[in-house]
Design brief:
The chain is an alpha/beta fold and 130 residues long. The protein is built from three helices and eight strands; from the N terminus they run E-H-E-E-E-H-E-H-E-E-E. The longest helix has 11 residues.
Length: 130
């Protein structure tokens, strides 16, 4: 029973799509018109790392409560983890693309790690081999 999607609340669709597809090299799986439960227009936007089974549903904040969650979905903790084969090359590419890292890379028992912020401000671990 795999997890198919995890919702990530964002301020706007297009900057989030650009970040995930152009910076992180995720695939844009779907971008379709949809409606909220009360009939207002929205989009169904799914991105996913190449070859991954689980994707992110990019959901535009719809009210003040959701707007407050943008960038704070995990209460300031790292909530997302991206494992890569070539940590140094990926880290360098992300730095060159202007991604904000909150500290230098470090070695942990589970591998190399560097914490970065996504377009919404959420914290991610970039993880590499030991």
């Amino acid at each position: 029973m795999p997890i198919e999607l995890v919702t990530l609340v964002v301020a706007e669709y297009d900057p989030a799509i650009a970040f995930f597809t152009e910076v992180l090299d995720f695939e844009l799986v779907e971008d379709s018109p949809a409606e909220t439960t009360d009939g207002r227009p929205k989009r169904w936007v799914v991105v996913r790392p190449p070859g991954a089974q689980t994707g992110l549903l990019l959901a535009r904040a719809d009210d003040a409560r959701q707007e407050a969650a943008v960038g704070a979905q995990t209460a300031g903790r790292v909530g997302f983890f991206l494992r890569v084969d070539d940590f140094d090359a990926t880290h360098r590419r992300l730095v060159d693309a202007g991604v904000e890292f909150v500290g230098p890379p470090r070695a942990e028992p589970y591998g190399q790690v560097a914490v970065f912020r996504d377009v919404a401000g959420n914290l991610w671990d970039l993880l590499g081999p030991i």
